[in-house]
Design a protein that fits this description.
- The structure is a homodimer.
- With about 400 residues, chain A is α/β, with parallel strands linked by helices.
- The first copy, chain A, has two domains: about 5-120 and about 215-230, Thiolase/Chalcone synthase (Peroxisomal Thiolase, Chain A, domain 1, 3-Layer(aba) Sandwich); about 145-215 and about 240-390, Thiolase/Chalcone synthase (Peroxisomal Thiolase, Chain A, domain 1), CATH 3.40.47.10.
- Chain A has helices at about 25-35, 45, 65-75, 90-105, 125-130, 145-160, 165-180, 195-200, 230, 260-275, 290-300, 310-315, 330-335, 340-355, and strands at about 5-15, 50-55, 80-85, 110-115, 200-205, 205, 215-225, 235-245, 285, 370-375, 380-390.
- A nine-stranded mixed β-sheet of chain A has the order 3-2-4-7-1-8-11-10-9, with helices on both faces. Chain A has a two-stranded antiparallel ribbon with strand order 5-6.
- The longest helix of chain A has 16 residues, at about 145-160.
- The first copy, chain A, is globular.
């Protein structure tokens, strides 16, 4: 068995949704407080020696430089803290930095998380802010926003592989169903394929129910060096693979927009580090910002051959009872997508699943988990692999 | 001698100033190109396995998610890249992450730098964007911007220690003089104490010439594991100390606004790591965003006792010919302060000084250097110590 890179000894998630009246700092504290309460052996002030926070944008709250503010609100000053930004992968990248810090021996016990407060602004303003993660002179300037960008990926996939609108809809249906079992999810109600197909078009073939919502939320993990993990818990979850790759910021420079090259590259490296193959994954959280993205993730992760993602949905392979349950949390689609929080929120779900704390959505006996997170139009891709610590 | 954390084998700096017509991506490439050209043994595509970029704000260019764009423009895709943000310490924090990555063994040869494109917007817009690094509900909302925040620190320092407007002015005069010797500096002309005192008040006691300018620019370093350094250069510069501390985001929560607690804490830790004391520092770059900040930096770094910073200037201790030359590059005040670029630009200057490449501003025989960088109203503080590799 490979040596772990770092170990998750606790995790916390704020309720996701429209959290009126709460600032970023308060949302983050809500998540951290849960992680601290679940880990009575941890004395945050004594133990935590670094804070890593992912956040996409300063624009929602007109607030940059959030890391010292969060350290302050957690009563953890003067512990070093900083913010990482890589669009929707902001907190996955924070987690990778935390892993570097732990592997370096320069930090032992860190708090890593992500946060975004989005619902205080009108939808058009949020859409514009999100659009900043695409290329300004080559994309934004011409008026395209992310639904349009992913719609182009979807039409390319449909043209190349015959993927259907019904298959896209099945991603939303599955993830909404999982969301009904997650009390933290933004949406906790079932929808049908008919509902998705009948919802209003945003950018064809993507309808409203093909899109993840605008949500507020925060997520965090207490991450330690593997040798310290047992001091804090009998059930650590080890990170055994972590890889990242980049692609062009703009779609226009890509050879193939019907596949996710960053995920393919990061998955290959993460599987090698972890010494596992796709077929050994018991549970996965993938980046379903739009339904097409989940289908492309299946293919890039090797859960199926290129072009066969829609078929996995037809066959129910990725449902709770299927062979590789995907997005048991409800995914970005139903749990919500507070952008900066998403990366470590995926890791939180895997932590819950691998420690048997996932309640009604628990996958029995899950030992190996995976998270796949992309930023922008998959210009950044992070894949991480986790193993139950026994 | 302590074991180095990482080694600088090359460095590059774009010209600082109003760089009309250049985007962030192009400024960064200008800096990286210089670093690559100065290091013929380096084959960027073959060797560089990680990119760490500091940038303060997405708002200047309406462009977030800059790391993949920079990786693309450098022809380094799919190498992992991300952005760190910690206000004016954004690239110092990127450098610390790069050090973690190298110390972890997960990266060997990385490009670390920073960039900011600021002069494309009107001054009032830039001032508002910079203000985002202060506390929104407790500071920004009430209309205060950074000149006002540092003016409060200056008046506290004057009241407590008797520091004078003339002493503040001497910081600007010294740094402008150094700037005349740096062809990359934004300002390359001498000014007098009378000029500073006669310049228009921005926030008393700070006049226009007490403030660093709004500049465009980029800086970068090629950082390797110490054991690989000699493969690329006969004159590496080793990073032997690196520490970071946080304080409250808002001034209102501090016990003492006449001192820089983050710098004191980070300096103590960095000196211990490096096994050196303040008196051994041959050359230092400190964070003179406003003249008062340089005086407070002297005190927090132990270059003099608390309250004696002004006296160091009266005695010329920190001039080029003095005992501890400070801001030989011209500092933020004359070289310019493209926010995200500043941290690694300070490291670039120390690299030049310790390798004998600083031209007319060369400090003869310099062996040990220091950089001190603060973010916001010193809510983040980074201190790093460097040793000539011989």
């Amino acid at each position: 068995m490979v040596k772990p890179l770092a170990s998750i000894v606790s995790a916390g998630l704020s309720k996701f949704g429209a959290r009126e009246g709460l600032y970023t700092r308060e949302l983050f504290v809500e998540a951290a407080q849960e992680a601290f309460e679940k880990c009575p052996e941890l004395s945050p002030k004594r133990d935590i020696d670094g804070i890593f926070v992912g956040q996409m944008s300063e624009s929602y709250e007109h607030q940059a430089h959030i890391a010292p503010m969060i350290a302050d609100w957690l009563h953890l000053l003067p512990v070093p803290a900083f913010r990482s930004e890589a669009a929707c992968t902001s907190s996955s990248v924070a987690m990778r930095c935390a892993i570097f810090a732990i592997q370096s021996g320069m930090h032992d016990i860190v708090l890593v998380g992500g946060v975004e407060k989005m619902t205080n602004l009108p939808t058009a303003a949020v859409t514009e802010i999100l659009g900043m993660a695409s290329d300004f002179p080559f994309e934004q300037w011409h008026g395209i926003t992310f639904p349009g960008i992913f719609a182009m990926m979807a039409t390319a996939h449909m043209a190349k592989y015959g993927t259907t609108e019904e298959q896209l809809a099945k991603v939303a249906v599955k993830n909404h169903e999982n969301g009904t079992l997650n009390p933290k999810a933004h949406f906790q109600k079932n929808i049908t394929v008919t509902d998705v197909l009948a919802s209003r078009p945003v950018a064809w073939p993507l309808k409203l129910y093909d899109c993840s919502p605008i949500s507020d939320g925060a997520s965090c993990l207490v991450l330690t060096s593997p040798k310290l993990a047992r001091k804090f818990t009998d059930t650590p979850v080890h990170v055994i693979g972590s890889a990242q790759a980049q692609d062009t910021l703009g779609l226009y420079e890509r050879d193939d927009v019907a596949s996710m090259n960053v995920t393919k590259l990061a998955a290959k490296e993460a599987y090698e580090m972890a010494g596992v193959q796709a077929k050994l994954i018991d549970v996965a959280e993938v980046h379903d910002c739009f339904t097409i993205a989940e289908i492309m993730a299946y293919e890039a992760l090797g859960f199926c051959k290129p072009g066969q993602g829609g078929k996995l949905l037809d066959e129910g392979v990725t449902t709770l009872g299927g062979k590789i349950p995907v997005n048991t949390s409800g995914g970005l689609k139903a749990k919500g997508h507070p952008v900066g929080a998403t990366g470590t929120a995926q890791a939180c779900e895997i932590y819950l699943q691998l420690t048997g704390q996932a309640g009604k959505r628990q996958i029995k006996g899950a030992k190996i988990g995976l998270t796949q997170n992309v930023g922008g139009s998959a210009s950044t891709g992070v894949v991480q692999i986790y193993r139950r610590g026994d």
